[in-house]
Amino acid sequence: NVGSANETETQKADRTSAQVKVDNDQNNLQNDQAQLTSAQMAYEQASPTIIAPTSGTVGDLTLTPGLVVTGGTTNSSSSTITPQQVGIVSLPNGHAQATVDVSEVDIPNIQIGQRAIMTMDAFPNKTFTGRVTTIDTTGAVSSGVTTYPVTIDFDVSDPSMYPNMAVDATIQTKVENNVLLVPTSAVQTSADGESSVRVLKNGKISVVNVTTGGFNDTDTVITSGLSEGDTVITGTTSSTNTPSGATSSPFSGSGRGGFGGGGVVFRRGG
């Protein structure tokens, strides 16, 4: 019985020797596996076969006979390596993706699955939609400004979309339905935090205190103080008190947030 009280010294020595042999074999196996991995990496680097980083359809190849493919170029000033690109890989679903940089102020409001509206300089008459698919929470710092790359998957893309084209994206971080809106420029806020707007009624201008709700870059929700149909003055007035920017309705449509950041989408009430 191994390990029992009746085990002889010879048996103990044999058992210890066997354990040492097992340990040595395991170490040798690990060394062999490391050497195999190293040899495989060296083979891939020297091999004429280029392996795509992800599944999809390879296109836009820039390879020609005799072209030397390297691991990339090194920037001497920053010690960074820029990989050499030999082609692109299209996603299996055929949809393009866009990456936008979101500020540290907006990134806490961004979540995977949120809708996005995108425009591109290359397609001035088109608007694209999509959804947030990934969020890089590590971020990057440039000139003291931190931004976080967010990837958006286009719902429908155009075959003429090429890598590195400029994209402006508005990510919808919140949707409010049936709300009363006025242009944000029409809302005046005093030092004590009171909000008010100027309204035109019976040919006269008066200041009305209001309670505000959500807002975005263009519109502010009014929760009390105004009624549908009130005429809100959005511009300046002349010496004759004729409003130069009056609007007959507080509804100004759906607003959007800043490009690359989050925005609140409002839908009209009434």
- What is the percent of helical residues? 10-25%
Order of helices and strands: HEEEEEEEEEEEEEEEEEE
Please report the total strand number as a whole number. 18
Could you report the average pLDDT, rounded to the nearest whole number?
76
Word description of this protein:
The strands form 4 sheets. Strands 5, 6, 7, 8, 9, 10 and 18 form a 7-stranded mixed β-sheet that branches. Strands 11, 12, 13, 14, 15, 16 and 17 form a 7-stranded antiparallel β-sheet that branches. The protein is built from 1 helix and 18 strands. With 270 residues, it is mainly β. Mean pLDDT is 76; it is low at 239-261 and 264-270. β12 (188-189) and β13 (195-201) form a beta hairpin. It has one helix spanning 9-46; strands spanning 57-59, 73-75, 80-82, 88-90, 97-103, 115-120, 123-135, 140-142, 145-154, 167-179, 181-183, 188-189, 195-201, 204-215, 219-224, 231-233, 246-247, 262-268.
